[in-house]
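From the shared-data thread, chain only:
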Amino acid sequence: MNHHDSEKISYLLENLGYEKENDIEKLRSITGKDIDKEEARKGSIAYNILESHNISGNMNKLRLKFDAMASHDITFVGIIQTAKASGMEKFPIPYVLTNCHNSLCAVGGTINEDDHMFGLSAAKKYGGIYVPPHIAVIHQYMREAFAGCGKMILGSDSHTRYGALGTMAIGEGGGELVKQLLQDTYDVNRPEIIAIYLEGTPKAGVGPQDIALAIVGKVFKNGYVKNKIMEFVGPGITSMTTDYRNGVDVMTTETTCLSSVWETDEDTKKFLTVHGRPEDYKELKPADITYYDGVVHVDLSTIKPMIALPFHPSNVYEIDTLNENLEDLLHEVELEAIKIGGEAGKGLRLLDKIENGKLRVSQGIIAGCAGGTYSNVMEAAHILKGHSTGFDEFNLNVYPSSQPVFIETTRNGAVADLMESGAVVKTAFCGPCFGAGDTPSNNGLSIRHTTRNFPNREGSKPGSGQMSAVALMDARSVAATARNKGFLTPATEFADDYVVPEYNYDDTIYKNRVYQGFGEAREDSDLVYGPNIKDWPEMTALTDNILLKVCSKILDEVTTTDELIPSGETSSYRSNPLGLAEFTLSRRDPEYVGRSKVVDVIEKSRRNGEDILKDNTELAKIFDKIKTIPGFADIIANDTEIGSMIYAKKPGDGSAREQAASCQRVIGGLANIANEYATKRYRSNVMNWGMLPFLLDSEPDFEVGDYIFVPNIKKHLRGDMSKIPAYIIGENIKEISLSIAEMTDAEKSIVEAGSLINYNKSKIK
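Structure, as tokens:
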């Protein structure tokens, strides 16, 4: 596998693969046509889908409206609360509320089911679609019921990806969904489009996760597709069924791309027809001559079973390579565990799991939108049929991704084969992916066909001395490992000529249980609030001058949203903004919340008109120093907004959960300073919650506890954001230069207003 810069490889020619842009004469001789790069850009599938959803009239400055949206129960309460506070009266497009993050009752009493009742009441009041718990995971339901060729779907989960069905789907924070609910737009500069050129045929025993991990391993660290669209093309597509393609596609999120889309063909048509929606099919393919901004070349026949070692999906190796280098590679993970978990990290002893030269794992999971698809479950059952997972420590859990998949695998005997082998088959649930189900024991190593293996995703609590880890693999190799009683095994060891039986989709369960309310809003019905569902606290508008207190400084190369706000059991407070905020950075910087809340108390006093310098010697000294800066001798402390700030090199990789930003905001957060933002969605969340997304192109010359004064910030927002003077107020005053990357006028107004809620309220007035 390799990738090529746009200057080197740019054109995709029908039936001829890709060609170098500088071979322009060759292109002319092949095609008999003059080649115009800008015109050829319009030949991509992605360009045409974007164009059909753009209302700006300018393809460089997109303003997109989506065909449908989806949220799960970690996010939909906050989204609906925000939209309600902003003046929403009904859902203007189909909005699917799923309940696949639904196992938290034991932790939170009735809290979890209260969220579900709120969701059902919202679907009734505003005209939505409600999928009850255990019926389907979010992305499988959208594949089955909504995704279609040429559509665009927006979801509040980062793995909102339906590209294999010709749908360009984007996972974003809740604020972006609120904008669609208010009939506003998703604004973004036209993204670059990268061709993922597939050729060859996957070997028997190689599954979609293997292909996805191979791609992630090549492009994540160098950012080759970051915030770009991955367009899958080439002859290799026909070697995979659409169900298989879905498994590759859902993992594109882990490359940090913006979205994905695939060529469609007769198998796509077959998939949509089987699911009762033949009208949603149309052929999508690039034009005869199409210009791309880059190419990733993938020879499917060369890919072997892969494993992503803890603690990131990009930490990828061939299973064979790992088995040949067990001690060295596992030791590297142990060292990383210490960096992540401190003393608790020392308790993760992977080298102890080597027995007779083989790695023995403690748990296998096949689940969610990535692992629980029909073909994955069938392949796993085939490998395990007639065999035992053993009666020792190792256990295997399988979660079909929807009740229709569960029903079909029950009828054709696959579920029985799995259960007889020792596997436990469970209902549709995303828990093993987000850290709320099947948590391994302390010092356990779990192999999973799920989407993420970030630190603590599996339930570790380093602060309590608990540390375990997750590695990502394909369902086939998870099953092969289970067949070998937990000893790590690539599925190619048991590969044969098995062909997955045809899928018979039966949506009776959906007809009997899913509430279909789109277009039938009951405006006079009431929302059902449980005691833990709280409104967003008040947030105030930005002042001309701001004072930031550094409350956390994170020097890791990447900071995930799971570190900013842990998933798993903390989600019991997901609908209680202040309750959830207590967990902000709890596993990365436990002192952050206390520091930020001290700053928040000062800011609230300022808002209430109290003299914030009275009885606060530290702050009085800070403002005395600020007055020595030329032009600020007369600064008034009570006219200066004071907030907390987090510094991280590259924050925001991972989940689209807006709580990663909102939790900072509700306890006084006013800004992030970063060298770069890992994803567009996290930066959007920061802005939608009224925080400033500062950039710093040098090493941070400040420490936790320091203050940073940023004068005239509103002027800079509306003017030059490339050089924003700021001052570190320490023993001495040191000037630094901050910047902010491009923002839309609406984003600037949102930050100035103090939050998206405030911005929308001002528009109503």
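The first strand starts at residue 2 and ends at 4.
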